[in-house]
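Example record

One chain of 218 residues, shown exactly as stored in the release files.
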Amino acid sequence: MLKSLKILAGLALLYSLDNTAAHAAGEGFCNNYAAVSVEQYHLAQERGISVSSPRWNGSFDLHKMWCLLVSEDAAQHEVNARQAVLDASASLGPGEEPAAASPADDASAPPEPGEEPAASSSADDTPAPSSSGEELRQALDDFDAVQEIYNRAKASDPTCVQLRRIVEEMRVYSDNQKPVPESFRYSVIYPSPTPEPTIADLAADRIHRVKQVKPTCF
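Predicted structure tokens for this chain:
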């Protein structure tokens, strides 16, 4: 019951924030989104609900990172979809089994538009034999650096000067051939998705997104 109340409180917080589909979700919204999503994941586990679907995972950071890349409407859709499953399980009678996730949501399938990727297992995060732990750490650092620069473009009504500066800062990574960490490869889609994007591909994708904020600036 306590967890259900916490989730409902989190949902109220999400609904209370400005919900504008035309813009990517903001930091405050995504912190709340990630907290609610993790609570929903743990409650689903407690109720014996199948959580193999990509939209169910217990990683706050992964939920937040995905949220920062999409609109608030898209993020809210995921919360609503998980809550519908939880509500349905709460109405089951004694001895009834909770419904398994839809086969279409199998974690081995590519995420559908608006659906989050599954959190990588600890085995997925293990570098290949040819990669050292230090290389993986550097790739994570570079990913975080590019993402931090990109997030500045989502500030309230950035100027053309600010957007151009952001683009120039990201171009520093245009020759970076380190691989994007596996958990975040799904977010690199410009000019087209690639199975193993590099930090250079990530920079190109984020530069494209920044230019869409105010196309007349470029």
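Notes: The helical segments are 2-16, 27-46, 60-67, 72-90, 133-151, 160-171, 199-213.
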